[in-house]
Amino acid sequence: QLQASGGGLVQDGGSLRLSCAISGSIFSIDTMGWFRQAPGKQRELVAGMTSGGRINYSVSVKGRFTISRDNAKNTMYLQMNSLKPEDTAVYYCNAVTINSRGYWGQGTLVTVFS
Q1: Residue 5 pLDDT > 90, yes or no?
Q2: Would you state the pLDDT for residue 32?
Q3: DSSP 42-101
Q4: Which of 9, 43, 69, 87 reaches 20 to 30 Å from 57, CA-CA?
Q5: Roughly how many angstroms between the first and final C-alpha of the chain, as a whole number?
Q6: Are 4 and 107 in contact (CB under 8 A)?
Q7: Pairing between strand 102-104 and 44-50?
Q8: How far apart are CA 46 and CA 35, in angstroms?
């Protein structure tokens, strides 16, 4: 019900845009966000946004990544600029409804090489 895409191989300093298509069967989304999990590490929040428009970023990506949503296309994005090797991870999109039901996308791999 969440379909993430857009990952790939990119050079240090490059950019990628991730997309998360949201199924029409998911209603009343309260919060959405992007998480990532690097090998051997726990999954961490990268960027999140509430239905009210509040946005937050992890310290490690603030100023480089931008989360956005296109309601007409029912899609959430993560624009990633100035990528670093330490950004290498599987990126997951997430949505939580007002009834606290959570959904995860299948993950998309981002690999940044120097």
Answers
A1: yes
A2: 96
A3: --EEEEEEETT--EEE-TTTTTTEEEEEETTTTEEEEEE-S--GGG-EEEEEEEEETT--
A4: 9
A5: 34
A6: yes
A7: unpaired
A8: 5
Say how far apart CA 39 and CA 86 lie, in whole Å: 11
Residue of 19, 58, 22, 63 lying closest to 41 (CA atoms): 58
Model pLDDT, residue 98: 95
Cβ atoms of 18 and 34 closer than 8 Å: yes
Q: Is 41 helix (H, G, I), strand (E, B) or coil?
A: coil
Distance in angstroms (rounded) separating the CA atoms of residues 13 and 113: 9
Pairing of strands 108-113, 8-11: parallel
Q: What is the DSSP letter of 24?
A: T
Q: What is the pLDDT of residues 19-66, one digit of tens each?
A: 999 988 888 999 999 999 999 999 999 999 999 989 999 999 999 999
